[in-house]
UniProtKB/TrEMBL annotation:
PANTHER family: PROTEIN YGHO. This is GNAT family N-acetyltransferase. It comes from Brevundimonas intermedia.
């Protein structure tokens, strides 16, 4: 008996959303984005990467016997290509059955799109905004990810290599235990000097001051990350598109902007881990969503640091350690007991040293995967 043919569809949002539910059992670590968020990300008229930057976007699903069995996005990011001198197309949201031919069908479509856009390489995964989730999981499949972390099946790296993609740019995510000892491990003479100096002032990210604090956070991120590989400064529209809805879930005790002599100097964006809520709702806002939200809020014990950044002119003064010390103290006081840290590249030695000071455990290993299309 011959296998049923695989059909490729472009632009099928509902099928795209359903793919992981068809592939992964309910007890897998996979956590879906909310369907409403996915719809925003995949809409070129709403996503500023396409709407404002001139990027192009497409997405595909593979189907067999009326069942979605694979998915993939492909998009261009003109500002990134101009800043870094590349002709790159990016792929994302790669989930697929363990079948090389299905994966090839998806990637052939993405590579055709990349060629049509004048690109000479396809790299991913990037999921899908300017503040992107990045990477393909290569180790740590058994661990439960935090908000803004990727999870994918163990066969995905093998499928990528079978389609001609090579792993590059290794990264890790981390997890550490929250407690007074962890916070105090970050303190040295520089950090204590920051904490005792009235020139440094601490501003919680509360709902009442959310817009002002988040604009300062954007400025600190853009300045502090300016020299990082692949980074592109975020416009206000891009930052708001990804982070604006944090106003409704932010815990002002655990996120802050620090000012130095009245000017924004550094930021830590730490939020409660929303994955249990998203897992419970299966990514849809329905009649039970509020019940799930309240229940998970009452029993939350995990938070995640999305990013932390210090303006370059103030590097070396101990502010990073001082900020993390204050945030970890606040996490413990608020009842949190574990904290995740989103991806850190292997080449980022300064951030990796901070993880050592926190006695952080490596939660996941990830890589980008790249194919030269020339």
């Amino acid at each position: 008996m011959t296998a049923a043919a695989v059909e490729l569809r472009a632009g099928d949002l509902e099928g795209f959303f359903q793919v992981p539910f068809e592939l992964y059992p309910p007890d897998s670590p996979y956590v879906t984005p909310m369907r409403a968020d996915l719809e925003r990300y995949l809409d070129p008229a709403r996503n500023p990467l396409m709407r404002d930057d001139g990027g192009r976007l497409t997405f595909f699903t593979a189907w067999r016997n009326g069942r979605p069995i694979g998915r993939l996005t492909a998009h261009t990011h003109p500002s990134s290509n101009a800043r870094h001198g590349v002709k790159r197309c990016q792929f994302g949201y790669f989930d697929c059955e363990d079948n090389v031919e299905t994966a090839r069908l998806l990637f052939d479509a993405a590579e055709t799109f990349a060629h049509a856009e004048g690109c000479d390489e396809l790299v991913g995964a990037f999921n899908l905004t300017a503040m992107q989730q990045a990477g393909i999981l290569t180790e740590g499949f058994e661990n439960q990810p935090y908000t803004d972390m990727i999870w994918g099946a163990p066969h995905l790296p093998r499928l990528l290599e079978a389609c001609g993609y090579a792993p590059v740019f290794p990264m890790s995510t981390f997890e550490f235990d929250v407690g007074p000892e962890t916070a105090d491990a970050l303190l040295g003479d520089k950090q204590r000097a920051v904490l005792s100096d009235p020139d440094w002032t601490w501003k919680p990210i509360s709902r009442s001051a959310f817009k002002a604090r988040f604009e300062e956070a954007r400025q600190c991120l853009n300045d502090g990350f300016s020299d990082n590989p692949m980074f592109v400064p975020l416009t206000p529209a891009e930052f708001d598109f990804q982070a604006g809805e944090m106003m409704w879930i932010v815990d002002p005790r655990i996120a802050c902007v620090v000012h130095y002599r009245g000017e924004p100097a550094g930021v830590v964006i730490c939020i409660p881990d929303l994955n249990p809520f998203q897992k419970a709702t299966r990514g849809r806002i329905g009649p039970m969503a509020l019940v799930h939200f309240i229940r998970e809020r009452l029993r939350r014990r995990r938070a995640v640091i999305i990013f932390y950044s210090v303006k370059r002119a103030l590097h070396g003064q101990g502010l990073n350690g001082a900020m993390l010390h204050q945030v970890i103290k606040a996490l413990f006081a608020g009842g949190y007991r574990q904290c995740g840290v989103t991806w850190i590249a292997d080449e980022n030695s300064a951030s990796l040293r901070q993880m050592e000071k926190l006695f952080a455990r490596r939660l996941q290993r990830l890589n980008l995967f790249r194919k030269d299309l020339r």
